[in-house]
């Protein structure tokens, strides 16, 4: 495992701030609630996803796909502009590996060598104990994106079993420990798929971390060579993936800026201008022409991202805060009641997509003298849940014609106390002169769902 040398500098300070902010956000999100609902919770058992105040149900997974596609296009857009900004500044692999390496240095110390060295046994044990504790904290918050974190925390504090979530917590802890304590940047070099296809997203104007060969070569000790590079090798010593940035753009470079700070420090000590290694485009490194930010690749990614964002916003604006599904009871055909009228039974599935409880009124649009019989109306529905209730539609006795006849009707659903938006669903009332059954029981059961 490579033991990169620590470095100080302007980018190191900025990255430390960015790391702290990103970790704070990652840990805070599972705890934050909006009107009692979690900010982000992918509740797979209950089949609903809370995403920044939006509750997505299984029939609305296109919202989740649009979010994923939008994030991917945003990554492509910023990669075309700034190269591997994600890898160097925001990727959890880089952020947490950096934190784990810092903890190891504090416990084991640093003696100025990147090679493996002998460390006291108790220091190794303390280091890995700290790694396990950190992995458990990270795993708890990762599982908190799929299971309410306050429930897990209270169970842990009270010594109660975690159930299924406990199994995921143990697996996540082991994976986090193996990744950040053992693999580290080896994941970036050999396993990360993004590193494999990043070159497809780059062009000659993409900003990368590069070595100014025209200024630095020929390299050599100060006073011997004409170039600014003194061949100290510090840029290699501080690189977490162990590459030599002077050899040109390489797939293993994660744009962590360690080499920039190391080289700037050397240039400052020998009285030469900083920036021998810096953010540059390929055309800038060769002094071919000025950098162009606006170019076809960037415009294409930006346009696609704009289409996804506009489409998402449009669908969100048109999204109904409720959902109604109607299913006619096919096992019980047309029935007659005591006064000679005819009835059909229906099962209604009413979904409340809001983060607050509401009452919903059901009505029908049907021929004259048709009547809706419901045990409870308006129907209360808890936040982000659905209920299943049975109703009857009753038709007058003179509606029966010879043979059988299907008559179209519509169910209307209105949320009490809100706007005048009405949700309508079409169904059918079936009449049959040859079918008479016992009078149905009065509808009254409402079955809550999630």
Describe this structure in words.
- The chain is of the alpha+beta class and 450 residues long.
- The chain has helices at 10-28, 61-82, 85-90, 92-108, 121-143, 149-158, 164-183, 186-191, 193-201, 213-216, 234-237, 258-269, 282-285, 296-318, and strands at 33-34, 37-38, 40-43, 48-51, 54-56, 208-211, 277-280, 322-328, 335-336, 342-352, 358-365, 371-374, 379-381, 385-395, 404-415, 422-432, 446-449.
- The strands form five sheets. Strands 8, 9, 10, 12, 14 and 17 form a six-stranded antiparallel β-sheet that branches. A four-stranded antiparallel β-sheet has the order 13-11-15-16, with no helix packed on it.
- The relative contact order is 0.11.
Compute the number of helices. 14
How many structural domains can be distinguished in the coordinates?
2
The unreliable regions are 435-442
Q: What about the largest sheet? A: 6 strands, antiparallel
Radius of gyration in whole Å, from Cα? 32 Å
Categorize the overall geometry: elongated
Number of strands: 17
Specify the helix fraction band. Answer: 25-40%
- Proportion of β residues? 15-25%
How would you summarize this macromolecular structure in one to three sentences?
The chain has 450 residues and is of the alpha+beta class. 40% of the residues lie in helices and 21% in strands.
List keywords for this structure.
450 residues, single chain, 40% helix, 4-stranded antiparallel sheet, 6-stranded antiparallel sheet, Immunoglobulin-like, alpha+beta
Which helices and strands appear, and what pairs or packs with what?
Layout (H helix, E strand, L loop, with lengths): L9 H19 L4 E2 L2 E2 L1 E4 L4 E4 L2 E3 L4 H22 L2 H6 L1 H17 L12 H23 L5 H10 L5 H20 L2 H6 L1 H9 L6 E4 L1 H4 L17 H4 L20 H12 L7 E4 L1 H4 L10 H23 L3 E7 L6 E2 L5 E11 L5 E8 L5 E4 L4 E3 L3 E11 L8 E12 L6 E11 L13 E4 L1
Antiparallel strand pairs: 1-2, 3-4, 4-5, 6-7, 8-10, 9-10, 10-14, 11-13, 11-15, 12-14, 14-17, 15-16
Helix pairs in contact: 2-14, 4-5, 5-7
């Amino acid at each position: 495992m490579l033991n990169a040398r620590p470095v100080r500098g302007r980018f190191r300070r900025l990255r430390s701030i960015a790391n702290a902010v990103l970790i704070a956000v990652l840990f805070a999100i599972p705890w934050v609630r909006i009107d009692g609902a979690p900010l982000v919770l992918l509740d797979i058992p209950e089949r609903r996803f809370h995403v920044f105040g939006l509750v997505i149900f299984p029939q609305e997974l296109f919202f989740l796909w649009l979010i994923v596609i939008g994030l991917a296009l945003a990554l492509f857009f910023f990669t075309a502009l700034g190269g591997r900004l994600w890898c160097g500044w925001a990727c959890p692999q880089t952020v947490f590996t950096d934190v784990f390496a810092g903890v190891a240095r504090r416990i084991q110390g640093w003696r100025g060598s990147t090679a493996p060295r002998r460390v006291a046994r108790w220091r190794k044990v303390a280091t890995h104990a700290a790694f396990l504790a950190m992995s458990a904290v990270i795993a708890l918050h990762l599982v908190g994106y799929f299971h309410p974190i306050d429930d897990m925390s209270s169970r842990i504090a009270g010594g109660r079993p975690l159930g299924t979530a406990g199994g995921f917590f143990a697996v996540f802890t082991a994976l986090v420990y193996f990744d950040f304590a053992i693999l580290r940047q080896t994941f970036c070099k050999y396993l990360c798929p993004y590193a494999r296809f990043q070159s497809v997203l780059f062009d000659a104007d993409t900003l990368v971390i590069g070595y100014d060969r025209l200024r630095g070569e020929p390299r050599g000790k100060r006073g011997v060579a004409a170039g600014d590079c003194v061949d100290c090798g510090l840029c290699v010593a501080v690189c977490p993936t162990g590459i030599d940035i002077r050899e040109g753009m390489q797939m293993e470079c994660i744009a962590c800026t360690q080499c920039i700070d190391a080289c700037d420090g050397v240039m400052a000590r020998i009285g030469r201008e900083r920036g021998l290694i810096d953010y540059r485009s390929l055309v800038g490194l060769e002094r071919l022409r000025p950098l162009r930010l606006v170019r076809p690749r960037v415009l294409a990614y930006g346009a696609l991202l704009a289409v996804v964002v506009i489409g998402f916003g449009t669908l969100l604006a048109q999204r109904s805060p409720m959902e109604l599904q109607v299913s006619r009871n096919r096992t019980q055909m047309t029935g007659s009641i005591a006064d000679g009228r005819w009835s059909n039974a229906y099962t209604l599935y009413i979904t409340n997509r809001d983060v607050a409880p509401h009452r919903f009124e059901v009505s029908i649009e049907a021929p004259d003298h048709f009547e809706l019989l419901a045990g409870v109306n308006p129907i209360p529905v808890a936040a982000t849940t659905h209920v299943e209730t049975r109703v009857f539609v009753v038709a007058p006795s003179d509606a029966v014609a010879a043979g059988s006849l299907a008559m179209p009707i519509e169910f209307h659903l209105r949320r009490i106390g809100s706007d005048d938006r009405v949700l309508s669903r079409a169904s059918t009332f079936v009449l049959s002169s040859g079918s008479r059954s016992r009078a149905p029981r009065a509808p009254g059961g409402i079955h809550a769902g999630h």
